[in-house]
Amino acid sequence: MSDVLIGAWHGGLGDSLQFSTLPEQFYKQQGRETYVADGCSFRNKEIYDLVWGCNPYIKGVKEGIRNAGDIPEIDFVNPNGYTSSITNWEELHGLKPTNKHPKIYYEPKKLEGYEDTILVDLSSISLRHDGNKNTYPPAYDADEVLVEYNNLRKRYPEKKFAKVQFSQDLGTNSFSFDSDGTVIVDSIFHYCDLMNSAYGIIGLYSGQSALSSAIIEYNPDLLSFCLISEAIYKKHVERSGFIFDNVNYIIIEDKVNVQDTSIH
To answer: Which pTM value belongs to this model?
Structure first.
């Protein structure tokens, strides 16, 4: 059979993680080798290194037209009502659905001193933070985010809430919030190590949430909390989007009636 040339339309971490289980299943179910299609974009090289570079079922980069991933030939529908995009993407690619969560093949380390720490990463690139509820997707409102964050601090008063700060400029923007300290993240692999060692993580509906779902395979006790708008949550539940059953979603109610739900 022909080789698989895989890639995501967008370059974010979650965009690649949504296809992270496909190469293994192509090999095991169809005997096909998978390559990353040449020319695929990534917001930073570490996304490639983690999701594809560490994947033993990726044979390298190859020129050609993508035939796997979010390609025009595949209509993103959810006829069987799957609750996970991972399961749904496997079926849409002609595979027997096997997985529910994204997967990384880097085995994260255990770091000392984080067993009572809840990491807090209220940053993102693709999601708006200006509080404009008349857009789709509706933007995060700082006051609403901080209310939910402080509610979590009250629920876990004995834990240390540590703000995540990246040593590299990743182009993200974040809300300002009080914390019990700061953790400097040196790389995406260091971030995996921290999640694998921490009690919990609080994030927005962004790449760190999808990554935490994959990390739970290595750290089953990790509590992952994702702050998400009501409209986004409903849309992705209906269409089998980036919603995973091992993540705790804290839904922020939308104050307006969002009309446009056609955006993928």
So the answer is: 0.90
